[in-house]
Design a protein that fits this description.
Blueprint (H helix, E strand, L loop, with lengths): L15 H11 L3 E2 L2 E2 L1 H9 L13 H16 L3 H14 L4 H27 L4 E6 L5 E14 L2 E8 L3 H4 L11 E4 L4 E6 L12 E7 L3 H4 L6 E7 L2 E8 L2 H11 L3 E5 L1 H17 L7
Antiparallel strand pairs: 1-2, 3-4, 3-7, 4-5, 5-6, 8-10, 8-11, 9-10
Helix pairs in contact: 3-4, 4-5
Amino acid sequence: MPRKKETITLSIPPGTKEKLEAIARSLDIYWGKDPSISGLIVAIAQQSVEVGKPFTLDSNQVNALQQAIKALSDAGRIGEAQTVITLLIERGNLDAIIRQSLLKQASRLLQAWQEQIDKYRQNQQPFHLLYENSQGQELLYTVRYAEPRFFDKRFYLMIWCEETEDVENLIPDLPELWHNRNLTFDKIRSIVAASGKWREEGLGYVKVYLHFRGWMVKSYQRREDDLEDEMIGDVRQVVRRVVNEFWLIREVARYWEDCVIVSPESLRDRLKQKLLTLCELYDIETKS
C-alpha cells in the first residue's frame, strides 16, 4: 500500500524557484530528469544535507588553528590534530595554497601513526588504541598484535585485540576471528602503550578450502597466506589462512562461479545468506 504523503503550499518571491532548483541540482537531488525542490526540502528536514556557504576564516584564524594542529601533533595527539585538519578542509573556505598545505599535513600525520605503530611492533609492545568506526562510534582496543595488510589498493592495520563484544553478534559462527580487527589509519584517534605480553601467534585465522574453476585455474596468483595449492582433476584447490571474512567474501564474489568456498561450512553459509538476500532484493525466486 502506498505511503500517504503530506502536502504544503509555499509562498516564495519571484526567482526563488529557480534558485531552489539550482541547489537541488548541485546536490544531485532529482525527480526523473528534473531537479526536485520537494526532495531538497525532505533532505534538509532529515538533516542529510546542509545548505549555505561554509564558514570563512581570516589569516589570523587559519594561523591559530595551524598552530593548534602542530601543538596537538607534537604532543602525540595525532587523532585530534587529524580532526582539526579534516574540519578545516571540509568546512573552511580556504584558498588553494592553504588547502594543499593541510592535505600534506594530513598525510604526514598518517605517516606518524604508522611510524609509532611500527615502533611498538618492533619492540613487541602492546598498546591501547582508540578508534572511530564508520558509524561514528569510538571503540577502545587493547592490542596484543598488529601488522599492516594491503587490501583493495589500500593499506589497513590488522590487529589482534582482547575485546570481542563488538563483533560476536556480527560473526557468531566464526569465533576464531572474534579478536581480529581491520582498521584504517585515518580513523585512529589515540595510541598509548599498554602492559602485558605481545601475542607471538599473530592474528587469529580460519583455514579455508577454495576451488578455482574455468579461467581462474590458470590465472589465479598464489597469495602469501596460501598453505596449499594443487590440482584435483580440473579444479585448482587452494587452502588459505583467512584472517578477515569480509575480504574473502568480496574476493570470491568477484569471480562468481569460478571460485567456490568448499569449507568451512560457516563461511559457506555466510556467502549463501548474502546470495539469498540479493535474490530477495532483485525479486528472484529461490527453491525452498
